[in-house]
Specification:
It is built from three helices and seven strands, in the order E-H-E-H-E-E-H-E-E-E. The chain is of the alpha+beta class. The protein has one domain. The chain has a four-stranded mixed beta sheet with strand order 2-6-5-4. The longest helix has 13 residues. It starts with a strand and ends in an 11-residue tail after the last strand.
Length: about 160
């Protein structure tokens, strides 16, 4: 399974999950390690763009990863199985508790979830404690820049 991630250049190949543990994320509590990826490069761009307040001044990279193909390693819950309020802005207890419990179970390597930015797109949260992490291949690391039009002020 192919997945992508946009990050600071210094974290392009870091799959420790330590970045997500600093403050927590949509699907994990603070101090709980997780690795967030998109299942398309476009959703990665949207997901990172919505967190920008201005054009990034630090070097950014997009990392292409190949995840193990074993379907038993992944859980993709139905939309109606997710907790009410999972897409709340900002992320709140329902989604954070759900993902944190999933990580604690250590039952699967990846949790495939809808994007709060565009729910028809999918993201994947990896459990960096799972042994399948050793089978992830970093295929390519490329420079990433947002298109100038994304920051243009419009009347």
């Amino acid at each position: 399974m192919r997945a992508w991630r946009i990050s600071k250049a210094s974290r392009a190949t870091d799959l420790s999950g330590n970045g997500a543990a600093i403050e927590g994320g949509r699907w994990n509590d603070a101090e709980v390690r997780a690795v967030y990826l998109g299942l398309s490069p476009a959703i990665c761009a949207l997901e990172t763009f919505v967190h920008q307040t201005r054009r990034p001044v630090i070097p950014m990279k997009i990392t292409v990863l190949e995840l193990p193909d074993d379907p038993e390693l992944y859980l993709e819950p139905a939309l109606n199985a997710l907790p009410v309020g999972w897409a709340t802005l900002p992320a709140d207890r329902p989604s954070m508790s759900y993902g944190t419990a999933w990580i604690a179970s250590n039952a699967q390597f990846g949790l495939i979830l809808p994007s709060a930015v565009m729910p028809i797109e999918r993201n994947i949260m990896l459990n960096p404690r799972h042994p399948a992490l050793s089978n992830v291949e970093i295929v390519e690391v490329l420079d990433f820049f947002y298109d100038d039009r994304m920051f243009k002020i419009r009347p």
